[in-house]
Structures are given as C-alpha cells and as structure tokens.
Design a protein that fits this description.
single chain; mainly beta; 3-stranded antiparallel sheet; 8 strands; 5-stranded antiparallel sheet
C-alpha cells in the first residue's frame, strides 16, 4: 500500500498516519528521507486521532467544477491535538465566519475523491 493510500484509508477512519523520527521523535506529515529536525533517516509510522482545532480557513462561495453541490464550504487548516502538526481539509456547510469561529473543535471524518480530507465540527 502506498503512503497516499494509507493516508486515505486512515482518514476514512477519522485518523491520520504520520512518520515519527526514531531518533528525536519529530513528527512528519509526509514521507521524508531525512528528519527535518535532526537529519536522521529512521522513521516509524504513528497513527494519530484526527481531532484538533480550526487554526484558519477560507470560505468558498463560488466553487470550482465538481464542488457546486457543497457550496458554500470552507477549506480549513486544523491544528491537531497533542502535536504541532496542521492538516488541511474540506468542511461543507460553512457560509459565514460565525459558522466556524477560529479555535472550533473539529475532527477528520473521512476522505472523498476529488475533495480530499473531510473535516467536521465536533
């Protein structure tokens, strides 16, 4: 199974697969050949719960082709709990800033082809 396939399968379960440096413990979202912090080449997969808080987002009201049924929606950046990692995803039904205050608790709930990671408010 490729890294991309792993990411999709874990996202469908509400989780996120990361790559932890076996020397210093630094977490990477994508495959790395060298640790960004210490330069080590040793890694192990670590699965995180896909929960966190909304760090920032943009609301899309004029959607590109294929997204019309979701409009309006937000493209969000979520800071994961218990780490410094941030992940981006798609959140349907967001029309105004009042619908999604910064700091809102959220969770990965799936993956949809063409949209990517689906995130919903908790």
């Amino acid at each position: 199974m490729t890294i991309e396939e792993q990411l999709i399968e874990y996202a469908k379960q509400g989780k996120l697969v990361t790559h932890k440096c076996t020397k210093c413990g630094y977490l990477h979202l994508s495959t790395a050949y060298y640790c960004l912090k210490c330069g080590s080449q040793g890694f192990e997969d670590v699965v995180l719960d896909g929960a966190g808080t909304i760090a920032t987002y943009t609301i899309i009201t004029v959607a590109p082709a294929g997204f019309e049924k979701y409009t309006p929606y937000a493209f969000v950046v979520m800071k994961l709990d218990d780490s410094d990692l941030r992940i981006s995803g798609f959140m349907a039904g967001i029309a105004t800033p009042e619908d999604l205050p910064i700091g809102t608790k959220a969770k990965i709930t799936g993956f949809e082809d063409g949209c990517g990671i689906i995130i919903k408010k908790q």
